[in-house]
Amino acid sequence: MNGFYFHNPTKVYFGEGVVSKLGKELEAYGKNILMTYGGGSIKKNGIYDKVTDILKGAGKNVFELPGVMPNPRTEKVYEGIKICKEQAIDFILAIGGGSVIDCSKLIAAGARTDRDFWESFLIKKEKASDAVPLGSILTLAGTGSEMDCLAVITKWDAQIKTSWGSPLVQPKFAFLDPTYTYSLPKNQMVNGAVDTLSHLFEQYFSRPDTNNVSDDLAEALMKNVIQNLPLAVKNPEDYNARSNLMWDSTLALNTLVGLGKEQDWITHKIEHSLSAFYDVAHGAGLAVVHPNYMLYTYKGGLSKYVQYAKNVWGISSEGKTEDETALAGIRATRDFFKSVGAPSTLQELGIPESSIDAISENVQRYKTSYSDLTVADVKEILRLCLQS
Amino acid sequence: MNGFYFHNPTKVYFGEGVVSKLGKELEAYGKNILMTYGGGSIKKNGIYDKVTDILKGAGKNVFELPGVMPNPRTEKVYEGIKICKEQAIDFILAIGGGSVIDCSKLIAAGARTDRDFWESFLIKKEKASDAVPLGSILTLAGTGSEMDCLAVITKWDAQIKTSWGSPLVQPKFAFLDPTYTYSLPKNQMVNGAVDTLSHLFEQYFSRPDTNNVSDDLAEALMKNVIQNLPLAVKNPEDYNARSNLMWDSTLALNTLVGLGKEQDWITHKIEHSLSAFYDVAHGAGLAVVHPNYMLYTYKGGLSKYVQYAKNVWGISSEGKTEDETALAGIRATRDFFKSVGAPSTLQELGIPESSIDAISENVQRYKTSYSDLTVADVKEILRLCLQS
């Protein structure tokens, strides 16, 4: 195994009803809480009322930043920073999925500097020097943002969707109640699980490939998602399936399965470019791009794709060439995505063929662990995404 | 999945040469360092010199507690507490395997109380209220003590070997350099890997058994140990194999694979009773007891033993009854232990048949997740341990 550094101090409260421990957990922080959330579904499903009751019962002053959009944008970060500075916010409580948490992380760091967060952190790549502490209550499993120090942000006018990270914005805690994901529309649940699988793929399909614990754990998580997602599609209130999917998604991106691995995150880079132009749901974009990326590049990591087909999908290599086994694994991935209702073409995402050149040229990085891509390669991958 | 709380803030530095980062890591702590270690092998393999150079270079005052024995005893804890109190120790640096780290954890908590550590923590089950911070440099993989808050201690005159834990003694950091395990005698390496497997078994063979991430991760780790231990037996300097075994052992007991699981730790309880009488190496005792415990009790968790046989050992259930499949998995476990040179009988441990009654009556707990044991059951299990 390659060397690594691992440190993940986020506290995880997992299970039905765990939010009852929120008040106690917040005792360690000041009075002024900024509650960030999305489009308001938490007001319909009762989570908003429950959490505000707890916060008020704990004697906190609650401020709110509603309306954090999927693929959160810089404007929302500025809005949050303004509240933090004006109201001397002591703690940010993000309620939602990865978009709300990611946006909150940038607010947290942006609120404790006089510099412009975009210019300083994203353009000049300066380090954050302080951050408002934050924690989350997860309502959508997939991004893993609840237990990592990363954030993805979109600057819409510049058509840039990019990522950033700092240990200072590692969430202090994450409340993971699987029942909080029950009311999620089916496509959002599926997108989240595709995102989980995609995170695992990004770490797994990279060097070194010599037998290593990280890859073995990644395979175990992949199989668990593949086992449980169809159960949750069939019955969204299957507590055990939703539990597994929720914990899978956290473990897929809390850095555990990437330890000692190169990881290239190239499919995410391509998807980010799609989203920067067409604002597609991240998981939906990945469902389209990832199998086609695999199809176009698998020869560069052939033996790993063979291992994947055998270990994750149980495909026998008997009587098959290595190429045939690898391709069977990729086909199984694509078929699985289709079977759970994920999109498989750019058309389904509403992205026209004519945009392929611009999207390909806008990708933030082309370097991969197996063999680097060119802009022309990305164009070819996206053309494959036109075929169902 | 059952609910759980997870928090593991230990920093892990993994890979060849990582100890170079020790000085920087210790900047956060005071000047007076107590270095604890075992029988002196670190003086032969150069680790002692390297670490003391780093500590002196970092301007630390170094105090020493050498001679921490395997199955560490209360006397050694008192010795360490005395040094901590007299020298106003700011940080304990444990260099060794689980025995040294466990002993250091009890010293750490015992040094910050006026109460007698044994009476207060182990007998009255009072909580520790403070502890000297500690960290470790691992030289023997197996116990997982480097990334958990538990310690096992023996009071020899009372023939009690028992465990204790507090989040206050969770190590601040662990330096894991696989090359530091190269010079270990083969039997100690094997014992460590058996201990790792046994930790995984204790968590895996417990309810709930419904499909869950924790069990899937446990299976992945078991398979990784089974793949890598024979490689390390063949070539102790196989860096990749030693890396995997080292990281497996940490992950097997950093609470990850036990999340949402009942866990009964019954085999450890039986082994602790063996060690309390005969001071056998923990891993060697487990190698003898665990397969026979499985053999005696498997019917209580039959479907799980079938799953184990199939998923971990690749045993086909075709044409077999459930019992036959389960037994094939248990036999594979026993054969594996033998193949790597681990003992399989009490005789090999130097434990006479005549001691079985006393050992069985001295077990600290008989409750298991599947079906509780009686003293008579433990006697039967230990009688099975007489047969090769």
Features:
388 residues, alpha/beta, two-stranded antiparallel sheet, homodimer, 2 domains, 15 helices, Rossmann fold, 12% strand, Dehydroquinate synthase-like, alpha domain
Describe this structure in words.
The structure is a homodimer of 388-residue chains. The two termini of chain A are 39 Å apart. In chain A, helix 11 packs across helix 15. The longest helix of chain A is centred in the middle third of the chain and has 22 residues. In chain A, strand 6 and strand 7 form a beta hairpin. Chain A folds into 2 domains: 170 residues, Rossmann fold (3-Layer(aba) Sandwich), CATH 3.40.50.1970; 199 residues, Dehydroquinate synthase-like - alpha domain (Dehydroquinate synthase-like, alpha domain, Up-down Bundle), CATH 1.20.1090.10. The mean pLDDT of chain A is 97. With 388 residues, the first copy, chain A, is of the alpha/beta class. The first copy, chain A, is globular, with a radius of gyration of 20 Å. Chain A is built from 15 helices and 8 strands. In chain A, the strands form 2 sheets. Chain A has a 6-stranded parallel beta sheet, with helices on both faces. In chain A, strands 6-7 form a two-stranded antiparallel ribbon. The interface between A and B is large, with 40 and 40 residues.
